[in-house]
Fold Fimbrillin-A associated anchor protein Mfa1 and Mfa2.
Amino acid sequence: MKKVVYFAVLVVVLLSACSSESDSRIKVPVTQQNTITFLCNGFTKRTENMAKTVVTRASETTSLTADGIGMTDLWLFDYVGGELKQTIHQVATDDDFGKPSVKLDYGQHIIRIVASRGNHPTLSSDIITWEKASDTFAKEVNVSVASGMETIQRITLERVATRLNVKITDVVPPSAATLDLELATWYKSLSVPSLFAVNDNATHYSINIKKFVGTKDASLAVYSLSPSAESWSTNVTLVAKDEDGKVLSQIVVPSVQMKMNRTTVLSGELFGKSKQMTFTLNTQWNEDYAQNF
């Protein structure tokens, strides 16, 4: 009889333990998520007074082309409470390039998106650095993730780059082979939290100008990122050399003004008697721009 009682007690204990374990599993909270697609369907262009905004394209398809040239990389950064939770990097050959999808927990998120065609980007912590900067766009959006929300977010990116357009107004002589550009202050790194440039550095570009020999109005362009929405300045040194590296001409232009989403035109004679160049900060981004190298 005692054995039967002991067995009954054991069964009750086991059933109670199983029930307790089952209850504990039920009480474990499940994180609720939504998969959100961010459709990058255009770039914003602004006039100087910022009163008018024109979008290059707003459609249900992605559009990551500016001045007829496509972007090569796109990043999506997901922040919650100031902390970076996840990062997505896409390249132009990806099937979903320009429309990244990401699983987001319910709640408030800050999403920052960066698209660029700069050369050889690297991401370290929350700073993107390019070997050579080029046209770059970015956008920050606040997203409240909840049940029943729209799962496609349409994003229009804004330019965070500036461009220096060098125009040589006199004839390039047959002996000219390269043009060295020395830029005292130049930006090739972008802070993701601020979406402004950081880590200014002196930068050197050596450009082959043989194709311009015998012609006037040779034109080329280089890009920098911008440390703020305000104008900033750099000293520009132009050095023309022959095949052997002999200096044919050299000009220094101090305090050249640059500004986000603007083209600065540096024009004048490089080989003529005057050997003078002046700069003009355009009031808007001119799409009829210089030839890139």
Summary: Residues 2-14, 49-59, 288-293 have pLDDT under 50 and may be disordered.
